[in-house]
Amino acid sequence: MKESPHKIDFKDGIFDNCLQKLIKDGIGQENMNMQEVWVMEINPKDSSKVNGMLRELKNFHLLPFLKKFQKRTVESETGNSTVLDVLIGETSKLQSEEEVNALLKVDGKLRRVNVPSNYPPTKELCTEWSKIWPIVWKGNPIVQELNSIRLDIQEISENLRKISELSVSPPLKDELPIFTMVADRKGKVLTIKQDERKNHQLHHSTMLAIRDVAKLQQNDPKSYLLLDCVIYTTHEPCPMCCMALLHSRIERLVFLKDMTTGGLKFHEGYGYGIQTACTLNWKFDAYRWCGDEIPVGIVDDLAYA
User: What's the pTM?
Assistant: First the structure.
């Protein structure tokens, strides 16, 4: 993978000290959690037979990053010998030795062992945790994802400042100072809308911006809603607007101000994290500006809900 042109804080998902990608669990837990599993000591010549049986017991080996087999040297009065320890599965699934033996039908010594239950976030931790049970290291998927991202920080900053100026300027109408901009993949601004929910409960700035772009595209059969568009908004969208953006198939959203009633954050406010919810049929990237202060108009959280 090519080196990223950005300075990235992988722990907090921050690009160039100014733009934070909202990530549910960061790069992963640095503290190792443990889980009790069944391990069987077998003769190495029985490995193929046992492996075939384990394939049929799909529900028991639920930790795919752990290797199934581990070699171990056993000392005895007649000399040293090599045995294989086989990871069978969680003790919560099979609670007694009799159940395990009845399923596997292989001669072997069973014992309960605690193994890592979460994937290590770094290669160094992988090496350390593998002393307990060998782990397959395939790299950290979050780090790989962040390294692959390319952002035009200057363009993002300029667009955020445009809607910031509108938000803090003397209001042209008696509405909330919330503004949303939609730009296409080439950076062309398609629309900028102010919130009008005082006039109509559904007329949030994001909803109005979606409607505006839909009107522009209604005669283009190749267009699909806001596909590949980038949304810039002064205040974190509410859950209703987040769902509308998700169904509009946007690519990315950048906002300036956190809102308690927002629908994007994972560990604050409602904690919905709608943009990456696994039960929904689309995902988009959400970023929070955390660089030099870009002011926005004051909005009461309760009024914003």
Answer: 0.73
